[in-house]
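>> received
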Amino acid sequence: MFGFVMADMKELSKEEQARYNAVYCGVCRQMRLRSSGYARLGLRYDLAFLSVLLMSLYEPEETAGNRACGFHPISPRPWVDNAYIAYGADMNIALAYYNALDDLEDEGKVSAKAASRIFGREMEKIREAHPEKCRAIEENLAKLTALEKENCPDPDRVAACFGKLLGELFVYREDIWADRLCGLGDALGRFIYLADAAVDYKKDKEKGRYNPFIAANMAPDWDAWENILVLQMERCTFFFEQLPLVQDKGILDNILYSGIWLQYRNKQRRQTRGGQK
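>> returned
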């Protein structure tokens, strides 16, 4: 479901590219330190965006380093670290864990069982540190799964579950920015869910899997889908622009105003080449 909230790297300056990669490597490094090297398989750029956003909003003190790793054994990679990098790592692990449990229950995949063991190693600590966030993930994924099993024909209702989940994760602390962060995350979560449904329409139909647009008896319609997605992103950027962001604002702008749409159009083109009109 993830894979949309990424930067348009060609439009970033060299300094911004280095900074963006250092945050990503920082989250990856923390996932290894907090769990295991295998846990890094659950790393998503979408939640690296969350770390950059929170860092820009709260501007914490940072530590930095430069080292090689299992994914990059030859060339050392710069990384940065702070409380929001660690938070992003925890949320990556928690989402990967609950998603693996969901896949295990639905399909009984051996890979899902292995993933649940990998990501579950540190879940007791993560639950203790972030009980409300873990509860939000568990409850909203359960609601989402139930609606999908019912073949819910209302795309908004199903997308709202993932929106609420992400909205909860975007609120790091209850302060004056909490409502705006929640609104931003909620709209972004809805966008991710519906964009994923659009680009997976053909594959889901061929395999007989749930898709909210299929359940709603919608024929493939990229124009209609894009109108829906534009409304969600307008809501997302409405809350985004109310935050007093200076540090890394160029990276965040790039992701929300360019990178997301680049990823969506790339996935859309792959579907169109496959014969979908």
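>> The radius of gyration is 18 Å.
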